RNA sequence: GGGCCAAUAGCUCAGUCAGGUUGAGCGCUCGGCUGAUAACCGGGAGGUCCGCGGUUCAAAUCCGCGUUGGCCCA
């Protein structure tokens, strides 16, 4: 094993640990060690293979890795197969960009097979890069065997599930108004639409009424949907008015619109005057018929029974005009209302956004490009009341940022709205951390979830396993279709010869497969699945189901999934939806939902803002373990992280303290030939601090366990780190340092070695899931009995060593010690100088008991000759403080004199009455307040402890004896500093020259020559030229000039020197 | 436009559920310690508890209305 460096250098530690893992197959050994343990089925949410790891995905995988390591150490056989989500439009778009493609036509020209190959290569290339990234964070998962959504065996899992959904009667085919990306020529799910502000026309259009005078006034930002107009919607209880409006030229016309909107709209139409001719409700307007405003341009417009009439609808708001142009072919709400009304759907637009011949004059135009023509046509017919533009949020394709259009197209759905009750009930079957994520956020989402559009008119995805009769018409029902569940089943039923072992399930391999049954021939629906279908089956796809059944039967459903809060609408939902629709169950039992990694101000990291921090950069500047510990030291339940470089540096310095604690005993142990791996607490003598730190260790283990079990990961980590810094480093190590310096083997030293070795062994194991490299490095140096620290057990509480009373006492003592240090500082007596006496005063018996039980330790730590514990310190002097509000009225003009006489007097003096200017004054009780002060030479400070408060008094009066020791210690410390300057070995003897300018002080130091020589390994006191010394320095010791010379002894074997 | 989460010292957060003198760590500063020493210990400064309104003897805490940031939905 290499030497342990003075400084914690994460990069070195990590390299050394990584090498060790590689050499010893540590990961395999760890899995093997737990092969027979009870199973813990963790499922990795597959990251999308479009780019590389960023800080958020690094956090996510680190958290998963930490939990997996913890679960293993607590005796579980953990499923740790990582996953990758590799299909979908994002990759298609990237590949199209690489190939310089602009539309589907380019893809068809290249050929679907070649395009699929490109996508496959692209996704695989990204996956390999991400594989490396995740492994570079120290994530131990089964990287040799990840599940990939592009593997036929995984794809089959979606087929199997979809077949179940079909059997359950939850698959539906139909025309629905969906979000359509005209560039990608596919439907998009609501959650694939992102909203941005755009500028659109904002036009007010007159729809001439049939059979009566007047026009309905509607407003729209999408003129291109007017050819598809089918009805006008009004609010049932809204008040409408018919107004006769006068134009600038003096003509008049009648307009119908909501009362509230009249003024505003007439102003926009530049009417000069108007009168109300009619007032009526929405209900009254129902049934009015109107002329299609583009009747000439679009002769084939909706004219069927019930079209071009007024209906009520609940989506109407009293805004703009209060009348809403409705086209079921172009809007979701319009579509739903149209269905209720039994209206046909008229949608003269194809998938790429071009008008069909049904759009008459506009045939072949891209819809958005037709806006201007339509506005102009309306204007020419005097049907345009007003035309301007407006800025508003509008949906865009999540991948290519093209503005979407609403179209009614044939799509396939999983009708999750039919099983809403079951979905909501299944939510209750899962336990979420934090709880509010389930009960508020997720529940709301599920309540509002519409039917799931699972079909995409694209290429790079899992083909829909649906075969429809070749002659199927518009009204095809899902139950008349075949849904295939596995490759084997397809091979059996297919008309063609297929090899289930070797066939690829991607397009175009399955496109031409037909099935003939009962005299009907079926062909495959050309669509692919929505990419969210892929990961929705991860809980069984991970296990190779349906091809492999054993693992599924043993493990399913997942014990735990861990993702960020954006997955509420994503993976948390898709799994619930698919699980419930296919098998009636939620596929996971526990959900840990963490937050996002934002920038230092809590803002989202983004390329355009330029505030991105990459994991690589953080690893470079701090290290893998520090980055992991930093990420894990913050709340892991729903809260976002505001990344701070300072915070990362803080964590690194905390780990450095851990490193210092770890390496502190090593030189001593080596000198004594002590092997920490063989540490035995029954060998040697345990002092009270040993017993205390061992008890604290038990408390920490129990707190840490509890935190883990509630997935309070940051609590677990911070508890260990606090223990290391507060208890081990600041208290324990300080307390045992002197014992380590003892030269001979002693029971006390062995006790300290055993204690510290035990503490280190267990904290290393507790830290292992968080900082795997650092823990490995330490374990291999301290013990190394097993291949890796990660295959060991997580430490368990040893009740024998747990002593809550002692911990309580020590907690009191530390508070008292703090107060003593405070009092010392006030009395101007530094710790190196002993004091004769420290008095601890408290009227709490528990406090006194605590201090008394630890008084030796206390005396040592505060450097006092004597510790006195009392309930009341009777040397305090009560000093009087006059209360002028009482004295003033009582003594009138003499008040000032009385005040001066009273101030600072003792209680005795005041009670006897005070004299001033020859007069005697008696005072009442209420006129004076007393407070107790320490007498001259004693300074005090108060403390609050867990069991009660009190005060500490430090007697700083000097005696020759104390002063003598103080100076001697000061001299020792100067010589030590010089030894360090000379970089002498701890053991190396020296010759020392000492000149003290003050005779009295020189005497003091002489009294302690032996002590000084001992402490500084001075073999001989010498005189001589300054030039004869390796180092000569002049010091100011408490105002006294002291000149010290130090030189090495030439031959260390003969310490007597010359 | 709607839902959820957050806002407390320069920074990270606790305290909010169950109302009662705002706390810790880091940083800053002054001092101490000095064979773990780029470590460690003590003192001090530092707060509109995001704002406004309400309930209450009493509000960081409960309620309402806002502001800012984040996520989700439209």
From TrEMBL:
InterPro entries: aa-tRNA-synth_I_CS, aa-tRNA-synth_Ia, Anticodon_Ile_ABEc, Ile-tRNA-ligase, Ile-tRNA-ligase_type2, M/V/L/I-tRNA-synth_anticd-bd, Rossmann-like_a/b/a_fold, tRNAsynth_Ia_anticodon-bd. Keywords: Aminoacyl-tRNA synthetase, ATP-binding, Cytoplasm, Ligase, Metal-binding, Nucleotide-binding, Protein biosynthesis, Zinc. It is found in: Cytoplasm. CDD domains: Anticodon_Ia_Ile_ABEc, IleRS_core. A motif ('KMSKS' region) lies at residues 604-608. Gene3D superfamilies: HUPs, Isoleucyl-tRNA Synthetase, Domain 1. GO terms for molecular function: ATP binding; isoleucine-tRNA ligase activity; zinc ion binding. Residues 690-836 form the Methionyl/Valyl/Leucyl/Isoleucyl-tRNA synthetase anticodon-binding domain. A motif ('HIGH' region) lies at residues 47-57. Residues 19-637 form the Aminoacyl-tRNA synthetase class Ia domain. GO terms for cellular component: cytoplasm. The keyword Secreted does not apply. It holds the Pfam family DUF5915. Its main location: cytoplasm. ATP binds at residue 607. It comes from the Archaea. Its cofactor is Zn(2+). GO terms for biological process: isoleucyl-tRNA aminoacylation. It catalyses: tRNA(Ile) + L-isoleucine + ATP = L-isoleucyl-tRNA(Ile) + AMP + diphosphate. Its EC number is 6.1.1.5. IleRS has two distinct active sites: one for aminoacylation and one for editing. The misactivated valine is translocated from the active site to the editing site, which sterically excludes the correctly activated isoleucine. The single editing site contains two valyl binding pockets, one specific for each substrate (Val-AMP or Val-tRNA(Ile)). Belongs to the class-I aminoacyl-tRNA synthetase family. IleS type 2 subfamily. Monomer. HAMAP family: Ile_tRNA_synth_type2 (MF_02003). Catalyzes the attachment of isoleucine to tRNA(Ile). As IleRS can inadvertently accommodate and process structurally similar amino acids such as valine, to avoid such errors it has two additional distinct tRNA(Ile)-dependent editing activities. One activity is designated as 'pretransfer' editing and involves the hydrolysis of activated Val-AMP. The other activity is designated 'posttransfer' editing and involves deacylation of mischarged Val-tRNA(Ile). This is Isoleucine--tRNA ligase. It comes from Halobium salinum. The lineage of its organism: Archaea, Methanobacteriati, Methanobacteriota, Stenosarchaea group, Halobacteria.
